[in-house]
Amino acid sequence: xxxxxxxxxxxxxxxxxxxxxxxxxxxxxxxxxxxxxxxxxxxxxxxxxxxxxxxxxxxxxxxxxxxxxxxxxxxxxxxxxxxxxxxxxxxxxxxxxxxxxxxxxxxxxxxxxxxxxxxxxxxxxxxxxxxxxxxxxxxxxxxxxxxxxxxxxxxxxxxx
Length: 160
Description:
Elements: E1 2-12, H1 22-30, H2 37-42, E2 53-57, E3 60-64, H3 73-77, E4 83-85, E5 92-94, H4 104-108, E6 115-117, E7 122-124, H5 136-139, E8 146-156
Antiparallel strand pairs: 1-8, 2-3, 4-5, 6-7
């Protein structure tokens, strides 16, 4: 019998994005040691790595971040099990302690989302800001180009 679970997803609306980069700034701050914008960018060593990037082509611009796929190729290709689906949230997450920096997940991601943290030799990616109700990029997008939606995912479970 299928089980339905709710999962947070970040919806991107390129019609509202002006490529201001605030999603990247606040993502960086959220994943910094100090959680202070000045200290994160000017004083932290190693510097925190954002989990979002922005793309633009003429008048079109948008944020690029993890889609937390239902069929995550990054998880399937991970050699150590560092990349996995969180059982509680259904988000695709990385256990930085298990990651050996082989980068097979980066190669296998069809969206080109995953990033290397060269200082720590592990992959970084959107984690939906688990300590926050609303991810930092969504909460600080001035034009609401990023919005948080709840996606219903059907999970089939076999009962023996």
